[in-house]
Amino acid sequence: MRVIGVGDNVVDKYVYKQTMYPGGNALNFSVYAKQLGNEAAYLGVFGDDRAASHIIQTLKSLEIDIAHCREHPGENGYAAVDLVEGDRVFIGGNEGGVQKEHPIILTNADLEYIKTFEIAHSSIYSDMDSELHKIKETGIQLSYDFSSDYTDEKLRDVCKYVDISLLSCGQLSDEDVMNLLKQAHSYGSSMVIGTMGSRGAMVYDGEQFFRQKPHFVTPVDTLGAGDSFFTAFVLHYLQGKKNKSYESHGDLLRESLHKGAQFAAKTCLVDGAFGFGISF
Hints:
The protein is 35% helix and 24% strand. The chain is of the alpha/beta class. The protein has one domain: 3-Layer(aba) Sandwich (UDP-N-acetylmuramoyl-L-alanine:D-glutamate ligase). It has an 8-stranded mixed β-sheet, with helices on both faces. A hairpin with a 4-residue loop joins strand 13 (201-204) and strand 14. The longest helix is centred in the last third of the chain and has 19 residues, at 225-243. It is globular, with a radius of gyration of 18 Å.
């Protein structure tokens, strides 16, 4: 498959060991898709500092197409991560860096390029919600990560453009997760996934709920677990749907969830979202 991440990139700065790793929801999607054997591209905004240079060189080394990315003078996006009672937690950042002043405005050339992919993935941190309708109008699939920063208003505004929505729901009860997924579906997304940390994940397709328990490992770093789960899930699902290789939609969803959990467990054995750490 040919897939593209459109939106945010950052370096995750682990302050307790002075090491930074490439990351960001949209960028992680591209990298994980490539790791899974797909053709992958990334379209986003870079600064001109050492962090940006490291991300660019990493993507080039992974042979991810970045031909349509923008570069502007200034600080690249970063998120600060610290170790608190054994868990890695986000403690701040620069809210996207140069992306704030130079958000992605998709040109006709960008859209013709995006049309060549089977799915585009963006996120709530990509500062480009006003551009989502353009991607939707290309006719390709669009997925979107709301993380845990969604509101009912945000869901209502965005889900109508998004085919597959991802929400972080670890703080909610199972009943509340089910109600939330139904709500997002009613706003326009044909499929909605809720990740629930150690409780696994839940998918709603408009008719049924499907559950997946995590594949437990002793993690090195859980950063990127949600992104890797979603990437493996959605790409297996789309490939299976295209090939008509499953007897039922339910069978396809169950196997896709299994693939997602399997890949997420592997990601938890790597420092950062996918490695490539350098000192800062």
